Amino acid sequence: MEKIDRRAILAALAAAPSIGMTRPARAQAANTLKIGVLTDMSGPFRDISGPTSGAATRTAVQDFGVAARGWNVEVIIADHQNRPDVGVTLARQWIDRDGVDVIVDVPNSGVALAVNTVVRERNKVYLNSTAATADLTGAQCSPNTVHWTYDTWMLARSTGAALVRAGGDTWFFITADYAFGHSLETQTSNFVRGAGGRVLGAVRHPFPGTTDFSSFLLQAQSSRAKVVGLANAGVDTINSVKQAGEFGLMRRGVKVAGLLLFANDVNGLGLATAQGAVCSETFYWDLNERTRAVTRRIVANGAQNNWPSMGHAGCYGAVTHYLKVAADMGLAAAKANGVEVVNRMKAMPTDDDAFGAGTIREDGRKLHPCYLFEVKTPAESRGPWDFYKQIGVTPGAEAFRPLADGGCTLVRA
After folding, report:
1. 192 and 270 part of one domain
2. Exposed/middle/buried for 351, CB within 10 Å: 0-12, 13-18, 19+?
3. Helix, strand, coil fractions of the chain, as percent rounded to 5
4. Could you report the per-residue pLDDT of 277-301, keeping only the tens digit for each?
C-alpha cells in the first residue's frame, strides 16, 4: 500500500460537507444517525457514483420521513480519490472521530475491500452499491456488509453468455489492471468458454490515468476476435468505446461489449456512438412507474444533469432498507451493533421504489432481477435519457452466483 499523502487526505476531507464533521463522536445525540457516502467525486467513476449517489441517499432519507420520527439524520460525502489508503483513512476518521454509523456507495473494488475490513473492525454497517467485486460476498464476506446492486459474476453471466449465444464466440479483453477488472475478465471468460466460445487474448491497462487506448485496441483488432470485451468502467469505458469507433472496429462487424456499461456512460458517449451496445443493469429509470417516480425525486434532489443508474439506485434502496431496520430495532440499538443491524436486514424482506421486492442472502448478497439491454439508435430514442430497450431478464434467484459457490464463511454448510 502506498504511503498516505497528507495533502490528498485533506483534499478528500475538504470535499465533504462540514456539517457534523468536527463534533466528537461522544457528544453525538442519541437520536442522530450519520450516513457517510464514500464515493468518487473527481475521478473516472464520478458519473456512475459521485454527486448523484449523494442525491439518491438524501432522497432515501427524505422519503423515509425521519423528521417525523424525531430523528436527526446527517448525510456526509467525501471523495476517496480511488485510493485504498485514502478510503481507509476517511472510513476510520468518520467512525472513530465523527460518529458515522453506516458507510454507503464506495465505487472501486480495491477501495471497497479495504473499507470492508475497517467497518468490520469497528462493528458498523457497510452498504456497498457501486463496487463490482464478487469477493465482498465470497472470500472477503463480512457480517457487517451488504452488497446491494451488482457484481462481476452477475455481469459476466448476463452479458458474456448472451453475446456468445448471439454468435460472438471469439473474445479479446481490454482490462483495467486492478481487482475489479481482473475479476470481471476471469468470470466473463469462464462464461464465454462455458457457452462454447473461445478467448483469443487479453491486455491490461493501467488504472487510473489511462486515456489513450489505441495500442490496446490495435492488439484486439489483430486478434480478429468477434467481440472486444471491455473489463473496465466509467471514463475508461467511454474512452475505449469512442476510440474503438475511431478505429472502425464496429464498422468491421466487431461487437464492442462494455461489460460494465451504465446509462451515464451512454449519455457521455451519445447514441450515435453507443447504439447497438449490449449491457446489463439491475435498474433503469423507465422500467415501471415506481422507477420513474423515484428517478423524478432523485433528479429534483440534485441530479438534474446526471440521472440515476443502478449504482445510484443501489444507494437509495440500501439506505431505505437500513432505515426500515433501524426503525424496527430502535435507533439506539441500531447504532450500537452493526452485525445485528445487518442480520435484521437479511431477515426482513426488502421493498423499495428502485428495485421492488427482494431479499438479502446470508452472505450479504442482495437479490433482484438483472435486465439485459440494448442501446437504442438515435431514431428510436424518444427524449432525454431514453437509451435502452430491454431484450432479456434474469430472475434474482438466478442472476447472482450460487450461495454455495462463493466460499463465504458466513454460509452454513
Report:
1. yes
2. middle
3. 45, 20, 35
4. 889 999 999 999 999 999 999 999 9
Cα 313 to Cα 18, 60, 227, 233, 390: the distances in Å are 25, 10, 29, 17, 18
Distance in angstroms (rounded) separating the CA atoms of residues 399 and 413: 22
Set of cell numbers at residue 34: 450519520
Residues 159-169: tens digit of each pLDDT: 888 889 889 99
Q: Which residues is 367 bridged to in the sheet? A: 359
C-alpha–C-alpha distance, residues 106 and 114, integer Å? 10
Give the type of residue at 54: G
Q: For residues 230 and 245, what is the distance between their CA atoms, to the nearest angstrom? A: 14
* Residue 1 CB partners (closer than 8 Å, separation 6+): 84, 85
Q: Are residues 391 and 242 part of one domain? A: yes
User: What is the DSSP pairing of strand 72-79 with strand 32-39?
Assistant: parallel
The helix-helix angle for 109-122 and 84-96 (nearest 10°) equals 30
Q: Which residues pair with 32 in a beta bridge?
A: 72
Span 63-90, pLDDT tens digits: 999 888 889 999 999 999 999 999 999 9
Distance separating alpha carbons of residues 187 and 399, to the nearest angstrom: 14
Instruction: Compute CA 40 distance to the chain's CA centroid, rounded to the nearest angstrom.
Output: 11
Q: Please check the confidence at residue 21 and state whether its pLDDT lies above 70.
A: no
CA geometry: angle at 39 spanning 300 and 52, to 5°?
15
CB 261 within 8 A of CB 309: no
Query: What is the distance between the alpha carbons of residues 317 and 322, in angstroms, rounded to a whole number?
Result: 9
The CATH number that applies at residue 46 is 3.40.50.2300
Per-residue pLDDT, averaged over 301-322, amounts to 97
- Which domain covers residue 172, as residue numbers? 153-281+370-399
| Sequential DSSP letters for 132-148 | --GGGGTTT--TTEEE-
Q: How many helices (H) and strands (E) does the chain have?
A: 16, 15
The 10 Å CB-count burial string (b at 16+, else e) for 116-151 is: bbbbbebebbbbbbbbbbbbbbbebbbbbbbbbbbb
In a domain, 407, yes or no: no
CA distance 324 to 345: 9
Same domain, 44 and 75: yes
